[in-house]
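Sharing a chain and its predicted structure for anyone who wants a worked example. Both blocks are below, sequence first, tokens second.
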Amino acid sequence: MQKFLLLGLTVILLVTIAACGGAAEAPTAPPTPTPAPAAAPPTQPPTTAIPTTIKEAEPTATAPSGNGVSAKLQAYADEHAGRPGAIYVGDINQLVGPAATPDQGDFDGNVPLDALQNHLFVFESGYYQSLIEQANIENPTPLVDRDEVFTIQHACLNRALSFCKVTETFYFPNVIERTNGQVDFVMSSFPELGLAGPDIPNLLGTGTLDMGSVVGPYVAGEVPALEIQYLFGAFTSREEQYITTAAIAPEIKQLLEDSTGGGKLIVKEWASGNDIFFFSKTPLRTLEDFTGLKTRAFGTSISDWINGMGAEAQFVAFAEVYTALERGILGAGVTGGDAGFGQRWYEVADYITGPLISWPANDMVMNKDIWEMPPDLQAIVMEEAAKAEMEMLRLGAVQNEVGLLKNVEKGGMEYSEFSPELRAQSDKAVIEAVIPNWAGRVGLDSPWIGVFNEKMGPVVGYRIEPDGSVTKIPKVK
């Protein structure tokens, strides 16, 4: 942490991102979609006037609106409707509107109603409600004037990814504005800092890194339990993964604190547009097509699944996959639809196959020494973090829908959906490799086996037995 005395200096931060973000990480920056005119906020229903000769009072937290939401919270939702920062308090139409940058929305740069309706389970969940409470919208923490500036460097996975864009274009500017520059952020990425990813918990624990993205598959060697959020192939819908990720959030928070020497979880980084696809040079329509295919992997569970499909998993850093595909070192790479498009994999691969349902959340963690800032700044950082996470979920609704379409319609790739034969093989890989191998890594006597069986297994329909084998069980909603 760096502290500077900047009395009398006005801090101005202009954050601008190119359409793909991490141009330094991709061979070239992807084409920027032409932004459509910003969508107007949805028209609010007329309010019946109350005859009175007394000036109407300002909304208060204790004055409820017609839908049970306090008048002050409803006023905030109305003010932010139809634009970045919109929140859900009962009217999904208020979330419709432009994204912060065109590439974070659909082809017109917007978050459309149909995508939001398909993800209504998010906005009506108890987890989303907890974010509204954390945001403390009705009673925001007041700022204490001081001369110190706390400059914090954050290492996000890759600038081309949606959650990194939200962090840089939405979260950081909001914190800087609310703190009058007392908290300042410097955005970096793993490639820019020469980080591979597995060492992030250790770097946070030793104080070498101020703040960083802890990615479950990357750190599975050191903290295998974190991969419970990334058991690829186990989820058959985004709702299943969202429900389980939200359910185990308290255990994950404690695990992150333990593995980073007391680090503070700031934001769960929902990796939107993240249904997993094979990007390949040849068609992948049968099991024989996968046999021996050298395929980029980014962690142990995804490697287990790739190998279970008959291919050969090879760990390759995200920023290096383009060149590996171009040179024929790899026959295929796997990643989210939006992420692959952001890195222009469509230029070096002709076919896209899938999907493997995936909507996980990485974790933004601040080291414990950096977190020891004044209480008002801590509170503001966390209040704005909740708003940022709600924005990630808002954008996730559309990014999950258009990740594939971008590669097909803009990248010119040929899409093949997994056949029944490939789906059956995927299920086999989950039962025989993905889940039991993870159970072996955490240890069969680990409390995480109980966490899985209690909070995840009933949702996805699997149970880990005492001997480490996996059986199918009825799913419980």
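Comments welcome. The radius of gyration is 23 Å.
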